[in-house]
Amino acid sequence: MEFLMSENRTPQAEATASTSEAQTRMVELTASGDAAQVEARLRDALDEHGLQLFARIDHAAGARKADVELEPDVLLIFGNTSVGTPLMQADPRVGIELPLRVLIWQDPDGTRIGYLDPRELADRYALDGHEQTLERQAAVLTKLAAASAG
To answer: 149: helix, coil or strand?
Structure first.
């Protein structure tokens, strides 16, 4: 196994830096209703935008199987292969970040929606010439989140 590192960082420092960046990049919205209602609105918005739902991960259901309590927490993974594939052709490493995702969770303050801004992918991958695609993805995520929030 080979670790690719820059700036004389250890693998642990690289992982920490990536995690920290991910936490600061999340766009979050407060939603009306519970997680199930927000998810239903998101699914409707995906259909309206012609986006394919590839996967649904219910973190709370997984926690229950392990006898652990977790508030509703669902990740929807979706996209359009004709949009994402050219990005992966430009730099296959971007596949770790695609398809697009929206997280819906409940906490004591209510229901929240979060997603990562795809425009920041240009900073980490060789996606020169694909800036308009990343802008369009960001605009679609903004619309999906707003529709889901209610």
So the answer is: helix
